[in-house]
Structure formats: structure tokens, C-alpha cells
Design brief:
Blueprint: E1 6-14, E2 17-25, H1 33-50, E3 61-65, E4 68-69, E5 75-77, H2 89-97, E6 101-105, H3 106-118, E7 122-127, E8 131-136, E9 142-143, H4 162-165, E10 167-169, H5 170-179, H6 184-195, E11 211-213, H7 220-231, H8 243-247, H9 252-264, H10 268-294, E12 303-306, H11 313-326, E13 333-335, H12 337-340, H13 345-361
Parallel strand pairs: 3-6, 7-12, 12-13
Antiparallel strand pairs: 1-2, 4-5, 7-8, 8-9, 10-11
């Protein structure tokens, strides 16, 4: 399930074999949990019939969704799917089909998808409107999931909710922005305009006024704001874009690919944007891995990146790797293996959840 347009439903005969896929638009369920359940079950019937199968052929179901859950699968904080708060879709489908059903945060599911190929301990980071993540053990278990969260930022492990929980110190950010001839003050103005808040209300985890949450910078919108703070009123970069691309530069969902185009053309503002994004990611990476190391993470744990902004890894990655290398961190970042294969990490992760649920209840 996505936080915006709707839900993808995949039919798998094994974790690495997806047979078919269908889509459920959010408008068909966007105001009622019962509508959601009914719409999903109807789509499943159609999907099975299209593959000459019956409902009896389903042995288990996995669900990947944004948000934080209770241990039993009830939505505690369902991201922007607010109508689902307090609803337990896992239990509803389990009772409907009388088969095992598992549900997990989508970033955790994406981490399980990467693990299903690599079969080793790893960190999975997905960038989009924010920065989500997971730490998957060598045996394929999510370490430190944010289940039954009490609302205290101190309770969140950095590896599970990095964008929300990992702080970035504003004094360091001022220096980093200055290094690319930009202003963190200007960035804060743009951020508060986007969030529709006053600068006096801007703070990091635990209300710390000397920090901001990492996802304010390390996300698709964050990268676009960095670019806007660097170019200011200078529209020289527009010479390298067509009219449609220029008009799309105010939309973070689209602008990122145009910034990457500018980086590939060696346009200075875009190069500075990705250099700064990479340095900020390195700073957050150091903070995250320090906590993970205390809990037994390897200093060389691989990091898989997913989400549209991660496609810009060739541009911001070198800056990040150089910086974390200078910090003595041996980890390397690589694109999502599932993305590289043309798959969907959330769907594949849901398949891993389904497989685990099946064998757990067998």
C-alpha cells in the first residue's frame, strides 16, 4: 500500500517469482477501512481468476504499508492514511481467508526484499517524501522495529525511523551550506514555507532547537530545497532545461530527475546541490551507525538505497562515500537490487512476509 495513489497487489509463486500484478486506486477506499478490505478482496479474486487460480490456491498474504504498527498489526500511526488508525487489516484478512497474514512498515518490507537476494545483514534506506529505513539481520529479521511506539522520540531506533529520529545539528549545517556558497538560513525559510510553520516552531527530535530532523534535508523535497537555496534568484540553470522541465522544478516529485539531468551536464548549482546532499547524508550516516554499532552492527554493513531520490546516487554518492570514509566507516552504498531488476521492493518484501507467515504457522 502506498501513502498516496493506491495499492499494488502482486501474485507470487515464490519470493523471486512474481506472476502477475494489479493496482487498486486509493479513491476506491480512501475513507473507510471496510471499503479497503472489500476492495482488496475483490481485486484478489479478479487477480486469481486472471491466472486461472482460485482463492483456495492462496497460502499466505503479506502486507507492506507506510506507518507504525502495534505488535498485533493494528495501525498506530498510518502516515497520511489517517482513516486507518486503529484498524487491523492483517486480522481482517486472516479471518476472511483463514490463512496466515503478516503486515509490516514498507521500509522494513523493502529491507526484507533486499535481504531475500543478498542473504546477509544489511541496512535498507528508502528516500521519498521522507527517509525511511530498516536494519535486517543475517537471518532476515527486522532489528529494532518501531512497534507499539509510545510517541517519545527517544524510543525510536535510528535504523528504523532515520529521517524522523536522526538529528542534524544546525551549527554544522550552517558550515556545510556555506561550503557550497549557500545559506542555511535561506534553506530554513524555504522549509518553513513548505511546512507552513513559523521558524520558531522548527526543531529536531525531542524538540531540540539546535537540530532538525534529517528527513527535512535527506528526502526528495529536501534535495529540491537545497537546489532552490543555492540558485536563489539566479535562473541560469533554466538554459539547460526545456520549458516543461522548467515549469516542473517546483514539484519535488518531478524536479529531482531534472536536477540529476543538470548534474550530468555539470551545471554548477546542481553539482553543489548533490555535493551538499551527500555531505549531509554522511553526517546522518555517522550518527546512525554510531548507535547501530553499540547494538552490534558491523562497521562495514552494506547499505541498499531505494526510492526515486536514490536514482541520483551517482551524483551525491561520491560525496557521501568520501565523507564517511574519512570518518572511518567502511560501509558502501549501492542501489536497490530489486530496483535494478525492475521489481518493486515493497511487493517483493510483502512476498517475503507472506512466506515467513506461512512457515511460521505451518
Amino acid at each position: 500500500m502506498g501513502a498516496g495513489s493506491g495499492a499494488k497487489i502482486g501474485l507470487f509463486s515464490s519470493i523471486d517469482t512474481q506472476n502477475d500484478e494489479t493496482f487498486l486506486p486509493a479513491k476506491e477506499y480512501s475513507d473507510s477501512p471496510e471499503k479497503l478490505k472489500d476492495a482488496i478482496t475483490a481485486k484478489i479474486v479478479s487477480l486469481m481468476q486472471n491466472n486461472q487460480l482460485s482463492i483456495k490456491n492462496i497460502r499466505s498474504i503479506g502486507l507492506a504499508s507506510p506507518g507504525i504498527f502495534k505488535t498485533d498489526g493494528t495501525w498506530l500511526l498510518p502516515s497520511n492514511l489517517v482513516f486507518l488508525k486503529g484498524y487491523n487489516l492483517r486480522l481482517a484478512l486472516e479471518e476472511h481467508y483463514d490463512i496466515p497474514v503478516a503486515i509490516e512498515n514498507d521500509a522494513n518490507a523493502g529491507g526484507l526484499a533486499e535481504w531475500s537476494v543478498m542473504r546477509t545483514e544489511l541496512l535498507y534506506w528508502v528516500f521519498g517524501g521522507g527517509w525511511g529505513g530498516s536494519w535486517v539481520s543475517h537471518d532476515g529479521d527486522i532489528k529494532h522495529p518501531a512497534l507499539d511506539w509510545d510517541g517519545d522520540d527517544h524510543s525510536l531506533h535510528y535504523t528504523n525511523e532515520p529521517g524522523y529520529a536522526v538529528p542534524l545539528a544546525t551549527d554544522i549545517l550552517r558550515t556545510l551550506f556555506y561550503s557550497v556558497e549557500s545559506s542555511f538560513s535561506r534553506y530554513k525559510e524555504l522549509l518553513c514555507e513548505d511546512l507552513k510553520i513559523d521558524q520558531s516552531d522548527l526543531s529536531g527530535p525531542n524538540g531540540n532547537k539546535k537540530t532538525i530532523r534529517s528527513e527535512y534535508i535527506l528526502s526528495g523535497p529536501g534535495r529540491c530545497r537545497i537546489f532552490r537555496s543555492i540558485v536563489g534568484d539566479d535562473n541560469f540553470y533554466e538554459r539547460f532545461l526545456n520549458i516543461n522541465e522548467t515549469d516542473q522544478m517546483s514539484d519535488p516529485a518531478i524536479a529531482g530527475q531534472h536536477i540529476s539531468k543538470l548534474s550530468s551536464m555539470r551545471v554548477e548549482a546542481a553539482i553543489k546541490t548533490d555535493r551538499l546532499f551527500g555531505k549531509c547524508l554522511a553526517l546522518a550516516t555517522q550518527t546512525l551507525l554510531k548507535q547501530a554499532a553499540k547494538d552490534g552492527a558491523s562497521n562495514a554493513i552494506p547499505i541498499c538505497l531505494g526510492g526515486k531520490p536514490s536514482y541520483a546516487l551517482p551524483y551525491f554518492g561520491p560525496s557521501t562515500q568520501r565523507a564517511i570514509g574519512a570518518m572511518g566507516i567502511m560501509s558502501y552504498m549501492r542501489p536497490s537490487i530489486i530496483d535494478e531488476r525492475g521489481g518493486n521492493a515493497n511487493l517483493t518484501g510483502a512476498a517475503v512476509l507472506a512466506e515467513k507467515a506461512y512457515y511460521k504457522n505451518k
